[in-house]
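Long-time lurker, first post. I've been practising inverse folding by hand and with some scripts of my own, and I keep getting stuck on stretches where the structure tokens seem ambiguous. Below is the full token string for one chain I'm working on. Before anyone asks, I'm not after the true native sequence, just a reasonable design that respects the backbone. If someone could post their per-position residues I'd love to compare against what I wrote down in my notebook.
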């Protein structure tokens, strides 16, 4: 596998169109990772106007539970509300709110509430004066601990003092929740007229990495050839052992139109035994079953 090293200056060279700079340039290079997106609800301390926008977030501290959000300094009204160091609400949009989150991601002039533009419903919070968003299954009520300016962004530490959670999400598994919220910010799209809009995406399948090698490294929807290749690459089985298993699988698939063939049943039994021994981590028994010299002992 070949790799290319880039200096910081090369991140921003002129090999892309003039508008492909900053975050968009990093996205084009594959250097910008997805960031969880949240609605950020703040309030003007003087006019009491409510303002809704979007921000990327990340964990800051678990005890006390504190999150950080990033806001571009170009969103002056929101930055001013945060610098007042009062209260705010983080509300997590679901995948069904992608359009509303996209609308709220634009910077609106002071006095215009993006919640109204995006048709979001506001409701009183429990511990803070700033309202929550009804459509969001999770609303974090926060105290603004501090705000720092850093190269075009305001970074705020928000200490969570309470949260509301919809009853409907309580029984959901971690996998189901990851497919529901939050939406992720994955860069920006620049149109021919120079208009810029956020690009949003959802998390994919949760990969059960801790189960490897007894399970598929890249997720349970991964096909057997990928699992076998990973076992070979990680030296749980040898290359020759992997080739043997793949030959069994190829012959088994070739005979799929005639399931009553005795040879196909024999191959099915062989593949089942291979999968069973691997799933239980019985490597010595697996090597003995395959009858091929195993790889050298793993360190």
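-- Answer (accepted) --
I ran through it position by position. Result:
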């Amino acid at each position: 596998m070949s790799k290319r090293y880039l200096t910081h200056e090369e991140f921003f060279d002129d090999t892309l169109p003039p508008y492909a700079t900053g975050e968009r340039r990093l996205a084009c290079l594959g250097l910008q990772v997805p960031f969880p997106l949240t609605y950020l609800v703040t309030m003007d301390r003087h006019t009491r106007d409510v303002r809704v926008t979007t921000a990327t977030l990340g964990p800051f501290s678990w005890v006390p539970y504190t999150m950080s959000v990033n806001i571009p300094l170009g969103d002056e009204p929101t930055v001013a509300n945060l610098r007042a160091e009062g209260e705010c609400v983080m509300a997590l949009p679901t995948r069904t709110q992608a359009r509303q989150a996209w609308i709220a991601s634009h910077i609106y002039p002071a006095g215009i509430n993006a919640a109204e533009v995006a048709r979001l419903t506001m409701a009183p919070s429990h511990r803070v004066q700033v309202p929550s968003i009804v459509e969001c299954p999770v609303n974090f009520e926060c105290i603004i601990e501090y705000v720092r300016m850093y190269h075009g962004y305001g970074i705020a530490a928000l200490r969570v003092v309470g949260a509301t959670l919809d009853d409907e999400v309580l029984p959901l598994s971690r996998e189901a929740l990851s497919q529901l919220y939050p939406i992720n910010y994955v860069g920006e799209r620049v149109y021919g007229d120079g208009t810029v809009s956020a690009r949003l995406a959802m998390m994919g399948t949760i990969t059960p990495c801790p189960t490897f090698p007894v399970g598929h490294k890249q997720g349970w929807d991964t096909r057997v050839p990928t699992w076998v290749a990973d076992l070979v690459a990680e030296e749980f089985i040898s290359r020759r052992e992997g080739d043997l298993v793949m030959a069994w699988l190829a012959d088994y698939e070739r005979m799929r139109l005639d399931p009553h063939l005795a040879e196909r049943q024999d191959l099915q039994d062989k593949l089942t035994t291979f999968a069973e021994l691997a799933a239980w981590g019985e490597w010595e028994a697996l090597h003995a079953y395959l009858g091929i010299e195993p790889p050298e002992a793993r360190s």
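A couple of notes from the structure itself: The mean pLDDT is 84. The radius of gyration is 26 Å. Happy to go over any region you disagree with.
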